[in-house]
């Protein structure tokens, strides 16, 4: 069955607002999800984009084995969870499986990056490391599309769902930008660097301001989780660390606001060098 359900770019935002979290028992839900073994199998076979899929720990049986084989075939990584978590998604008979679907197709940066070079573009990429707030994500997508970002890279796990709320907040911009989901962001950073893309990590731990570096060459900008910032692994592999100047008493910015400031500095530099 299908049912409607309902940043700190580094540490620039220490918000952790409860009202940003979806209420899975909301009578006016906003996320798209499917539940039940056979409906999920049919959705995958119909080439629906699976954003996240949750399977009950210890589930067995021939239909479940069929689903697992299908997940392996399409390289979809499930999350194994206790039945209590699935019961939070729906009180109906989910049969131990709930899958969130997305209208937005996912791509691989290993496919996208060569295409950008072949088109004669200077790759301009954005990496969102475990950004969880749907509205922050949607707002960043809107700014990214307006500033000419070629692709947004997300981790397979720990990222905000790409749902109707995200699409609405982006004003539809999500449909006009490539979204890449990657298994390991550290490996992705290494791939980008080996391909000639410089990776900048936006973090309050940086010594350099965003005005002290050049965004004119192929580059990727990393923004982190709203509460914990960029993961240590990704931060370690970045080529350079950058930060925004904070001169007021409030020492943090919302991640979508910080993203806008950084991306438009990159646009300014590109306009000056053209």
Task: Give the domain tally.
Answer: 2
CATH superfamily of the largest domain: SPOUT methyltransferase, trefoil knot domain
| Total DSSP E strands | 13
**SS-based class:** alpha/beta
User: Helix and strand succession?
Assistant: EEHEHEHEEHEHEHEHEEEHEH
Q: Assign the CATH architecture of the largest domain.
A: 3-Layer(aba) Sandwich
Walk me through this protein's architecture.
With 274 residues, the protein is α/β, with parallel strands linked by helices. The protein folds into two domains: 2-102, 2-Layer Sandwich (60s Ribosomal Protein L30, Chain: A); 106-273, SPOUT methyltransferase, trefoil knot domain (Alpha/beta knot, 3-Layer(aba) Sandwich), CATH 3.40.1280. The protein is built from nine helices and 13 strands. The strands form two sheets. Strands 6-9-8-7-12-10-13-11 form an eight-stranded parallel beta sheet. Helix 6 (164-169) links the parallel strand 8 and strand 9 (178-182). Helix 1 (37-45) packs parallel to helix 2 (62-73) and helix 5 (134-146) packs parallel to helix 9. The longest helix is centred in the C-terminal third of the chain and has 19 residues, at 255-273. It is elongated and about 60 Å long. Residues 1-30 have low confidence and may be disordered.
């Amino acid at each position: 069955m299908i049912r409607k359900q309902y940043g700190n770019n580094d540490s620039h935002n220490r918000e952790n607002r409860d009202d940003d979290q979806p209420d899975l028992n909301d009578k006016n839900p906003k996320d798209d999800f499917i539940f039940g073994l056979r409906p999920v199998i049919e959705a995958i076979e119909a080439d629906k984009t699976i954003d996240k899929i949750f399977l009950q720990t210890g589930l067995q049986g021939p239909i479940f084995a069929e689903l697992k084989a299908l997940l392996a075939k399409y390289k979809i990584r499930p999350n194994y969870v206790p039945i209590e978590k699935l019961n939070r998604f729906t009180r109906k008979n989910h049969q131990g499986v709930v899958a969130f679907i997305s209208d937005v197709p996912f791509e691989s940066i290993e496919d996208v990056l060569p295409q950008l070079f072949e088109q004669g573009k200077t790759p301009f990429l954005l990496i969102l490391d475990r950004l969880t707030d749907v509205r922050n994500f949607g707002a960043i997508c809107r700014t990214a599309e307006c500033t000419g970002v070629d692709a947004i890279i997300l981790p397979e796990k720990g990222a905000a769902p790409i749902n109707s709320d995200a699409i609405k907040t982006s004003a539809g911009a999500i449909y006009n930008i490539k979204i890449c989901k990657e298994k390991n962001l550290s490996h992705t950073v290494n791939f980008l660097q080996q391909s000639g893309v410089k990776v900048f990590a936006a973090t309050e731990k940086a010594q350099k301001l965003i005005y002290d570096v050049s965004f004119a060459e192929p580059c990727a900008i990393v923004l982190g989780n709203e509460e914990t910032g960029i993961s240590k692994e990704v931060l370690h592999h970045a080529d350079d660390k950058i930060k925004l100047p904070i001169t007021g008493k409030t020492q943090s910015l919302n991640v979508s606001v910080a993203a806008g400031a950084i991306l438009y500095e990159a646009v300014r530099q590109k306009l000056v060098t053209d």
